[in-house]
């Protein structure tokens, strides 16, 4: 078994050029999407667009002096320090340059995500074609890294999702994934306890059928201790946090950790006990483990009091200069360069037969409007009593992060968005 795992070690290839390049060479032909010389055949799944692909290779988490880079360094140094081996060296390996173009097998199948799971839909992800996708989470790399022989690793990188638009959601963001596996003697004190890792039991809300009660308890305890320590390391011991139970197809039991931010609970991460089937599939039937995935922007927003997720993409020196030269655990409070005013315009339309998907609206608005779009909200919806036609009204809030927008300038963009909505979705503007 060990041999098989070792021989796969080279499977996880880090993309060495990733850090140095600014934007990829992208070409859309009639039958392919070409990215930096790699050709992907287009099919009915293809829904990437030039707009989203321009974020590939930006690698904010590797850009010296960027708040996401400082946070990456801070988390890595915490993991290194917290988990030494008996010689004092870190047990965690770090992968922060893995290519974000992954197979649908990696992104879904390897994680036991069912065929009909909503996270697979075209309205949630960016597909190159039916076999390749811009990874929707760093969990895509779990199985390949476990199969390559690793027991403890962290993956950091950019992930892509067609999501809502507001101050804490952006279609590209960054995640840090942590995985730790345990052999029996690493989890249980086999000299003192007469215990087994596995049993042929029942799945309950608290454990998987293959795990003994004690195995599941200890894994949950190790996981929550690690994450609580990390959060205290980042935010200080006084931070207000809470655990909630949740569901992921790849962990059981599963949890989320939230922190108080501007008087609201903000979800920082998802985590849980790795589904044993994933370890069987990766060729590691004799170990158990935990995993977590956290959102770097969410943490950095709370840490540096950055009010809007779009600021991370700013090239404005007013933003970047506040972090240049800082050390990873330096306390920095972001000072708003200036609060430029918002402009908002509404767009109302009749839906075509069969309706539309609001994530297509968000995508088009973001595609045409770019980063000046701060929020898109469905503000009104009604059914015409006679024609039975349904109408929707979306409010688009515009704000530039670096200057005041004029109403005339916004008006032009808004008209282009309306035209694009009509052309692409078949809606009838009102
Ligand atoms: C996941 O992505 C799971 N892969 C996490 C996981 C890993 C669970 C390993 C179990 C084991 P989720 O979709 O909740 O879960 O995203 C994880 C975190 O990413 C969230 O808690 C949040 O901090 C961040 N996040 C999610 N969507 C966005 C978004 N659109 N913009 C910014 N951050 C986001
Ligand atoms: Mg979540």
Automatic annotation (TrEMBL):
GO terms for molecular function: ATP binding; phenylalanine-tRNA ligase activity; tRNA binding. The keyword Transmembrane does not apply. Its EC number is 6.1.1.20. The keyword DNA repair does not apply. Its main location: mitochondrion. Residues 338-430 form the FDX-ACB domain. PROSITE patterns: AA_TRNA_LIGASE_II (PS50862), FDX_ACB (PS51447). It catalyses: tRNA(Phe) + L-phenylalanine + ATP = L-phenylalanyl-tRNA(Phe) + AMP + diphosphate + H(+). Keywords: Acetylation, Aminoacyl-tRNA synthetase, ATP-binding, Ligase, Mitochondrion, Nucleotide-binding, Protein biosynthesis, Transit peptide. Monomer. Belongs to the class-II aminoacyl-tRNA synthetase family. This is Phenylalanine--tRNA ligase, mitochondrial. It comes from Daphnia pulex (Water flea).
């Amino acid at each position: 078994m060990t041999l098989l795992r070792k021989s796969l070690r080279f499977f996880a290839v880090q993309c060495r050029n990733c850090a140095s390049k600014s934007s990829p060479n992208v070409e859309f032909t009639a039958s392919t999407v070409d990215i930096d010389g790699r050709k992907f055949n287009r099919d009915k799944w293809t829904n990437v667009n030039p707009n989203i692909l321009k974020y590939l290779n930006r690698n904010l988490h590797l850009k010296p002096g960027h708040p996401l880079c400082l946070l990456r360094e801070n988390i890595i140094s915490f993991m290194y320090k917290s988990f030494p081996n008996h010689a004092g060296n870190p047990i965690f390996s770090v992968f922060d340059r893995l290519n974000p173009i992954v197979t649908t097998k990696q992104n879904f199948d390897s994680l036991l995500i069912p065929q009909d799971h909503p996270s697979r839909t075209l309205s949630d992800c960016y597909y190159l074609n039916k076999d390749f996708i811009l990874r929707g989470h760093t969990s895509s790399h779990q199985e390949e890294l476990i199969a390559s022989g690793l027991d403890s690793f962290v993956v950091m990188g950019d992930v892509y999702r067609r999501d809502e638009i507001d101050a804490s959601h952006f279609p590209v963001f960054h995640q840090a994934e942590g995985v730790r596996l345990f052999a029996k003697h690493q989890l249980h004190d086999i000299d003192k306890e007469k215990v087994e890792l596995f049993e042929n039991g029942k799945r309950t809300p608290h454990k998987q059928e293959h795990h003994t009660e004690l195995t599941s308890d200890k894994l949950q305890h190790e996981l929550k201790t690690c994450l609580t320590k990390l959060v205290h390391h980042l935010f200080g011991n006084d931070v207000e946090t809470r655990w909630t139970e949740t569901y992921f197809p790849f962990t059981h039991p599963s949890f989320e950790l939230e922190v108080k931010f501007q008087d609201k609970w903000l979800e920082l991460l998802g985590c849980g006990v790795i589904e044993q089937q994933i370890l069987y599939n990766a060729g590691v039937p004799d170990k158990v483990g935990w995993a977590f995935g956290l959102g770097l922007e969410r943490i950095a927003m709370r840490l540096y009091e950055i009010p809007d997720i779009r600021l991370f993409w700013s090239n404005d020196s007013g933003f970047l200069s506040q972090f240049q030269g800082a050390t990873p655990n330096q306390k920095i409070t972001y000072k708003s360069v200036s609060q430029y005013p918002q402009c908002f315009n509404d767009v109302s339309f009749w839906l075509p037969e069969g309706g539309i998907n609001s994530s297509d609206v968000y995508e088009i608005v973001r595609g045409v409007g770019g980063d000046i779009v701060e929020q898109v909200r469905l503000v009104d919806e009604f059914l015409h009593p006679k024609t039975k036609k349904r109408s929707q009204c979306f409010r688009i809030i515009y704000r530039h992060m670096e200057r005041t927008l004029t109403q005339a300038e916004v008006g032009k963009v808004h008209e282009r968005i309306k035209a694009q909505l009509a052309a692409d979705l078949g809606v009838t503007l009102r």
